[in-house]
Design a protein that fits this description.
single chain, 443 residues, eight-stranded mixed β-sheet, globular
């Protein structure tokens, strides 16, 4: 059986219907009492005027909610507000919005350079870069300024919400609101529930996502929450495959044939290989030594190969053309690095590429379910299809695993664990379901 066979129309229809149900079912939180009163959200504050903060502000302004963006730097604030205006101007130019609509939305967004401007906000969302000390300092300040009952949310993509909440005297009001970039376009919102987050805060954020036109999915605190926890496995295996014998275009071609719009390395180049570069470099000194790591992307950054914006990354890009083209220089470097690492390169087929990239996600998804990080397998699928490009005609990684059989997946995970070690440690839930011919969908 090949993973790359086209999806038949009947199966495609079943998978698409499943995805729609999954998105609807994600709104149901079993431990929230029916009719729980929601907290009012009429005024929103955003801390951080960068691309993410501006996009979040637009999401609220688009549905009639007033927003105040703050930044401590006047020049940065003005750049952020200019970027917002340009985004709206582009929508007008494309005919998606008229000038009156643009002006009405812009009128709902104001800027300030003092956190005191957020004193009357019903909801404040912190949207600065991923630095725990910085986020804690912001939340301590918000705790002193925000009105009683205001919701304090962080847009962190994976940091511990409880540690952030501990910087305040109101941890029940603190929640994760993980938007995806660009926030005014992307439809996924991960609502992250800390151990002390109040039920009405969760209910309010889930409903707010609906008001914003998002698919809201609840997660408990876990490194990377749901989406990034699985995506990390996908990316890691793609990088290991390149070390072992595949070239970037071979990995990407296999994933596109499976149904992804773009492969891992083309996505890296589009987003910028330097995203998170400094943080990853800092982590190298303290990361565990009992498992394998891949640092090729850091090395490319140090060579100035940042992706599309520099014209060179995992691929090369001609002036004015974003199509990735194979680059013999980077391919030669990859082969040389394998030799330096003592890895004997070998031919790697498309099915092995798909198996390793996807089975790692499935195994991690099983771990999230057994730990209660995700409520349902369908929630995981809703996240991966909505926010991470998993092909909707395949239904999501957990649905797809059920279709091909958990026994097959578990056997492969055990085989890969025997060969590659730590990252492939089988999830207990996967082993239990496989032993009983069970399915994630039956949980």
């Amino acid at each position: 059986m090949t993973f790359l066979a086209p999806v038949c129309e009947a199966e495609r229809g079943r998978a698409l219907a499943y995805v729609e149900r999954a998105r609807c079912d994600a709104a149901a939180i079993p431990d929230l009492p029916p009719g729980l009163p929601l907290r009012p959200v009429a005024r929103v504050g955003i801390v951080g005027s960068g691309t993410m903060g501006g996009g979040i502000a637009m999401s609220f302004a688009n549905v009639g909610i007033a927003v105040t963006i703050i930044d401590t730097d006047v020049a940065a604030l003005n750049r952020g507000l200019t970027r917002v205006r340009r985004n709206y101007d582009a929508s007008v130019a494309r005919g998606r919005l008229d000038a009156a609509g643009r002006d009405a939305r812009l009128a709902r967004i104001r800027g300030a350079v003092d956190v005191e401007a957020l004193r009357d906000a019903d909801l404040v969302i912190e949207a600065v870069f991923e630095d725990m000390a910085l986020k804690r300092s912001i939340f301590a300040r918000l705790d002193a300024v925000a009105r009683p009952g205001a919701i304090l949310a962080t847009n962190t993509s994976g940091l511990d919400i409880d540690e952030i909440a501990a910087a305040t005297a109101r941890p029940a009001d603190v929640v994760g609101a993980h938007f995806f970039s660009p926030a005014h376009v992307q439809k996924l919102l991960e609502v992250v529930r800390g151990p002390r987050t109040a039920p009405d805060v969760i209910a309010t954020l889930m409903d707010l996502g609906r008001r914003l036109g998002k698919v809201s999915v609840l997660s408990r605190v876990y490194p990377g929450f749901i989406g990034n926890a699985l995506f990390r496995q996908y990316v890691r295996e793609a990088h290991f495959l390149v070390e072992e014998g595949a070239l970037p275009h071979e990995v990407d071609d296999a994933l596109v044939r499976f149904g992804y719009a773009m492969g891992v390395f083309a996505v890296h180049d589009m987003a910028g290989n330097d995203v998170g570069w400094q943080m990853r470099k800092a982590e190298m000194a303290t990361r565990p030594r009992d498992r394998r790591w891949n640092d090729l992307i850091l090395e490319l950054c140090e060579m100035g190969r940042l992706g599309q914006k520099s014209g060179l990354g995992w691929y090369r890009y001609d002036d004015g053309d974003r199509r990735p083209r194979r680059d013999p220089d980077v391919e030669r470097y990859i082969v040389e690095r394998s030799a330096q690492l003592g890895i004997a390169r070998r031919p790697i087929g498309a099915d092995e590429i798909v198996e390793r990239c996807l089975y790692g996600m499935i195994n991690e998804g099983a771990r999230l379910l057994e730990q209660g990080i995700a409520l349902r397998a369908s929630d995981i699928d809703a996240v991966l299809v909505t926010g991470y490009g998993f092909p909707s005609e395949r239904g999501g990684p957990m649905y797809w695993a059920d279709r091909i059989g958990l026994g097959r997946v578990c056997d492969a995970v055990r085989r890969l664990y025997a060969r590659h070690g730590y990252w492939w440690t089988p999830a207990r839930l996967l082993e239990r379901l496989a032993a009983g011919d069970g399915k994630f969908g039956d949980l």
